[in-house]
Amino acid sequence: MQSIPTSGTPGAMSVGQLFAYPFRIFFIALTLLAILAIPAWILQVSGAIQLPLALPGLFWHQHEMLFGFLSAAIAGFLLTAVCVWTQTERTHGLPLVLLFGVWLAGRLLLAFGAGLPDWMIHGVNLAFLPLVMLDAGRRIWKARQKRQLMILLVLGLFWLMQVGFVTRLAPAFSYGALIMAMALISIIGGRITPAFSAGWLRQRGLDATKVRMVPALDMAALFTIILLMISLVTGWPILTAILALIAAGLMLVRLAGWKGWLFRKEPLLWMLHLSILWVPVSLTLLAGSILADWPASAWTHAAGTGAVGCLILGVIARVSLGHAGHPLVLPRGMVAAFIIIHLAALVRVATAFGSLPWQAGVGISSLLWMLAFGIFLARYGRILVSPRADGKPG
Q: For residue 8, what are the contacts with CB-CB under 8 A and spacing of at least 6?
């Protein structure tokens, strides 16, 4: 794939353009959070700074990566995609400003809200995802697209994990949220990855039927992951391990059917395939944490840094180009960013197993993570604050 050195129309850049389509403001926001929240947590843990956090340091870190970072990605992607799926007017302008304001207020309250009433802090944070679901749900309902309801169901379960997390500060709910994140990857990644891959083959006059999608297998994987979450949260460890291994096997079979190796020369595609591969890796590590006493932080970071972080970077890189009216040609440096974020996940998992000293491993992984998203910000910032290259609205 060729690279493009710059994108966008410099003279037309404006902050207001960020609110012309949901992907713009939320992709910028999640990128800034990814770059800033990790070093803030490390400095907090090391005692170099003392932020007036509304949650204990580790819980704040877990919440922001799950319900801050990931929720922004969900809002940016879902509210952009659902407008296309349902052929409805995009969310933009003042409604989008207000929705983003709720997300931003949640971040500020948790970072600087020590001493404020819990009902205020948690109320604002718990309001965001229902607002996203309401916006998407009303469009899906009007369009009678029942196929999309499964996304809302899983998103609702993800939100329930947030409720449990902020009210009880129990690890089971952060674990359950990670499982639901992988369920979302199973649905959304399971749609776009084979579809984009088949389309790429078709455009080149190749056999698109090589990419195989089996709806029954897709549903089996999804429902197994949901059952896994229920088992994990309710405390059935052996059943959890069995379900994790079954779900891992189903995901591997799905990935094999998508023939990811055919797209090794197309970064926008191999990034999706490789990122989703972290899901069965995470699930296997989860089973190992129960059956073989492997460190729990191995599977949580394989899921969070690997599956979630890597896939988000791959998706926002593609969506930002397509919906901003640019050709699907990666800006210079983004292939390196894709490689770097996978290295961040590998280093963090290796650190969990003791292959690297904790401080060095976490430091290296964090720097790699920040570098990957820093490259995205440098290369896509102009695209996200500029009007569409093709002159269309949004």
A: 324, 382, 383, 385, 386, 389
